[in-house]
UniProtKB/TrEMBL annotation:
It is a multi-pass membrane protein. PROSITE patterns: MFS (PS50850). Keywords: Membrane, Transmembrane, Transmembrane helix, Transport. It comes from Mucilaginibacter rigui. It is found in: Membrane. The lineage of its organism: Bacteria, Pseudomonadati, Bacteroidota, Sphingobacteriia, Sphingobacteriales. Residues 29-412 form the Major facilitator superfamily (MFS) profile domain. The chain crosses the membrane at residues 29-48, 60-83, 95-112, 118-135, 156-175, 181-203, 224-248, 260-285, 297-315, 321-342, 363-382, 388-406. This is MFS transporter.
């Protein structure tokens, strides 16, 4: 990214229609874009407190319900690798509207099914439609803003996204207690319908230049982005970092409700603390200006490893949920810090190919998350604080190796 490429975007001819982003509707469209950014987190986190009850309802084991998350993450990640080139060629707006409707419909299908395999299928559908929605909305900020404003808004994305891990499980815990697990998906369906109507009335097309859908040209763009080591390895760091967050999210319902014998509401409160810590870490990543990017990342990683070591040694001695959550919160703050820095870096790395860059950044990171968490759960059963600390340690050491490789390759 440089001043010349930003000038090209500013000078690009725009074909205005009744559904185009202009000065008159840019503010409202920006608010709606931020309202949709947390959708991926909302779709995974709102029903986390319902995991044990869903297992009972479908008469399956814990791993079968955890697989509904993996289905979403895999389809969401894979789809994002391709939807960037589609929305760069055909635009963001109409595809976004269609995706919101399909997402809402799939949520209502889950509500009424009694077959876990239908749930898996609908979660795949939700992953794909969410990919179109989120990639388009992240690209929106690169389309509409330039310079410092662009950096400001793109750095805000991971912070706004973190509102879902904060609020969704907390809200979901009360939904579970009051109405059962199906109510979570009713809320997702209503959210999709409401956002469709708001987008239809207040938003529009944001893309400045539509790229021809030529496979050779598209392949060249992908090759350019992937061949940039800082971009590609940054995506891997994002994936491992998000995997660190997901370890607790996927294990918390069983640790809290089985090990500590507390309710789904308690799981929601723990998720609230976990999500708040991610939010705090994202704000720190945006606001702290000391040192180079590489220096901040390595210092954060060292702090994370020290916390994980203390967690492994101390939590078996002090076996209480508040003590465990203290370490979870601190480790998640570090993860949120690292994630915000790399997400902003990767997302703004190639502004002329915002859709593809957005898709590769998030899609690639979700694929890495799906891979590392799936492998971890094959070899490790996380059922107590000690095994949770070991899972954290594996991912913390992976991040260490990646940061050591990247420390001299980052552009700033």
């Amino acid at each position: 990214m440089n001043e010349h490429t930003e000038e090209l975007i500013e000078e690009a001819p725009k074909k205005y229609t009744s559904n185009t982003i202009t000065e008159s509707n840019r503010k409202r469209a920006t608010i709606l874009a931020f309202a949709l950014v947390p959708l991926s987190g909302l779709a995974t986190d709102i029903y986390l407190p319902s995991f044990p009850n869903m297992a009972l309802s479908f008469k399956v084991g814990a791993s079968s319900i955890q697989y509904t998350i993996i289905c979403f993450l895999l389809s969401y990640g894979i789809a994002q690798l391709f939807v960037g080139s589609i929305i760069d060629s055909f635009g963001r707006y109409r595809i976004n509207l269609a995706s919101l409707l399909v997402f809402a419909l799939s949520s209502f299908v889950i509500v009424f099914t009694t077959n876990i395999h239908i749930v898996y299928l609908m979660r795949v559908v939700q992953g794909i439609t969410t990919a179109f929605i989120i990639v388009g909305k992240r690209a929106f900020f690169v389309d509409v803003y330039t310079g410092e404003k662009r950096r400001h808004y793109t750095s805000m994305l991971s912070i706004v996204w973190a509102t879902a891990p904060i609020l969704a499980p907390f809200f979901g815990g009360y939904l579970q207690k009051s109405f059962g697990w199906q109510s979570n998906f009713v809320v997702l369906g209503i959210y999709g319908v409401v956002m469709f109507l708001l987008e239809l009335v207040y938003s529009g097309e944001s893309i400045n230049i539509k790229h021809p859908f030529h496979p050779k040209a598209i392949f060249k763009v992908y090759r350019t982005l992937i061949s940039s080591a800082d971009f590609t390895f940054g995506i891997v760091v994002l994936g491992v970092c998000f995997g660190t967050l997901m370890i607790f999210s996927m294990s918390a319902p069983f640790i809290v409700e089985h090990l500590f014998h507390l309710s789904a509401v308690a799981t929601g409160y723990c998720a609230l603390l976990s999500g708040t810590s991610i939010f705090i870490g994202g704000i720190l990543g945006k606001t702290l200006k000391f040192g180079s990017l590489a220096k901040k990342l390595i210092l954060a990683n060292i702090t994370q490893l020290v916390l994980i070591g203390l967690m492994y040694v101390l939590t078996p001695v002090y076996t209480s949920l508040p003590f465990l959550m203290m370490f979870v919160v601190l480790i998640n703050i570090i993860c949120g810090f690292i994630y915000n820095l790399f997400f902003t870096y990767c997302l703004t790395r190639f502004p002329l190919n915002a859709g593809v860059a957005s898709g590769l950044t998030s899609g690639g990171s979700y694929l890495v998350t799906s891979l590392v968490t799936s492998v971890l759960f094959v070899f490790m059963v996380i059922k107590d604080p000690s095994s949770l600390a070991l899972g954290y340690l594996v991912f913390g050491l992976l991040i260490t190796g990646l940061l050591l490789f990247l420390r001299k390759k980052l552009a700033y």
